[in-house]
Amino acid sequence: MENTVEVDPRAAAVRRKSSAGRVLQTVRKHYFLYVLLAPALILTLIFKYVPMYGAIIAFKDFSPIKGIMGSEWVGLKHFDKFLSSPNFDVIFMNTLKLSFFGLIFSFPVPILLALMLNQVRRAGVKKNVQLFLYAPNFISAVVIVGMLFIFLSPTGPINHLLTWITGEPLMFMSEPKYFRWIYILSDIWQGAGWASIIYVAALANVDPELHNAASLDGANLLQRVRHIDLPTIRPIMAIVFILAAGGIMSIGFEKAYLMQTSMNLPASEIIATYVYKVGLQSGDYAYSAAVGLFNSVINVVLLLTVNFIVKKLNEGEGLY
Q: Where are the transmembrane segments (predicted)?
């Protein structure tokens, strides 16, 4: 005979009330911290969660005159249109390749920079090197792309050197095969130094006595980096990698759009630029919303998948 446990409703209500009282007591005790948190929370709700209401137009034949609720419901019509369009394969693969190769080649660079900076013992030299590495991050995408067009133009300094060596210039900004590598390498140059800050901060907490003890035991530089520095930043590496992989389909629109030319379009047309063109330029808001929502869903799936894999490989340490 199975034993049945009866739950007293009054006891459950008392527990809920007690739990709510503890939460309220905590809020009252640390009210100043919640006041500091409130502006960021309010801005996040206004600019991140409230606009989600507009995603409904991805499932409607949206008309600005009828409004969101008044427009006709069409279900997955726009998603089917995008998935069956002749441009889907090219746009999707361009986005995936640009993001994937960008992640693979750019992720290790900040870590290597941080490890090298950590070996610089003279504070003045270290600060000057850090300033030199961080500076490109504050240059706008418009200026970066302008510099690329100047340096890589047929009459630019790089092609002057190539012409002197090979006898003919290369059309870097026109040929599709060069677009992806120019985009990735310029991204690394611009952002690697700034991305290394978090690793440099983590390595600053390493006790110097650990390195001294390891040196006395005969450990060389690479062994100390492997067994002391890398384990220190491994949790941060895991979180940064998960976030980067979760946003693998979210390439910045501005730089890709500025680098586009009519001749490199087969390699430079990505989901972000496609959404801009069909949404704002062509006025097909519902279709562009569906494409953007499809991109967001892919990112969420990738985030969950990568987080699960990293937790399995990293002793249960992941994003959540």
A: 31-50, 98-117, 129-152, 181-202, 233-253, 285-310
